[in-house]
Amino acid sequence: MLIDAHYHLVAEEWYPEGWWQTVSSMYLNGMKALGMEMPMDTIRQTLIPTMWDPEGEALINDMVTNGIDKTVLLPMDYWLMYGEPKSSLEKQLKAYAKLQRKHPDKIIALATVDPRRPDAVKIVERAIKEWGLKGLNLYPQTGFFVNDPKTYHVLEKVAELGVPLTCHTGQLGAAPLRGKYGDPIYLDDVIQDFPNLTITAGHMAFGWHEQLFYLAGLKYNIMTDISAWQDVAKFNFRKFCTVLRNALDRLGKDRVLFGTDNPFVAALMSTKEYADLIKGLPQNSPDGITFTEDEVNAILGDNAARIFSSKS
Ligand SMILES: [Zn+2]
Q1: In terms of pTM, does the model score above 0.85?
Q2: Which of 44, 84, 99, 294 is the most buried (most CB within 10 A)?
């Protein structure tokens, strides 16, 4: 079983232009760090449009071709940071729901909302109850804390509906995104105040992975995904293996999920290449670090299948 538990289906009109500029600048910086140069305009005009897939055709094609059994889709809401996009949040969420209806065996689509929207609770309730979305994705780096009372109103609804939460953690995103909101320590309140909520901390909390592993080691309703660590896996394999081993030792094999953050990092490593890298860990890990087949199977799909099983 292979499940990508962290994927963003994206379309130009779902997000404000400011967001695409931010993604372009992240690419610019990422490429510079790798010794590659490409003008910002070229990135925006040629690279960014390759990610747009509003109908999900490219995603489904990639899944069928490469044996990816299921993909968890995470929408995003940038309204307060950049202004409303050309196409409303409702349209984005309905497009996610539509793709899930078309491919119920392949797609697990979540909802999202910025909790500062005045109708945030109502949006989440409609998205899950009426449109059939299977959980909630939060992106606090747009400027809110997960333990803020406004976020709590939304989380109360999510807990009441009995669906899981994915929360982006870590110091991700170029300006104007703010890393401080992604500190996993703010999830400590959520974990304790919502003991029945299943929470996945996305990205192993870049920059704070050790803190996340210690926090999660002592609380049991939180897991993490390994999305967007492909650059470390590719260019510093020993470090990647060390961090993943650390995650497994602290959280156990049942609380670490495979995820990619694609299409944003697909240019660096495809979903299949990242999955193959994880599959090969028992044979290919560096001296002194070991992984078992059981751990690999749990990460690649069994854990995500369990979290979403009763909801899909
Ligand atoms: Zn993401």
Answers
A1: yes
A2: 99
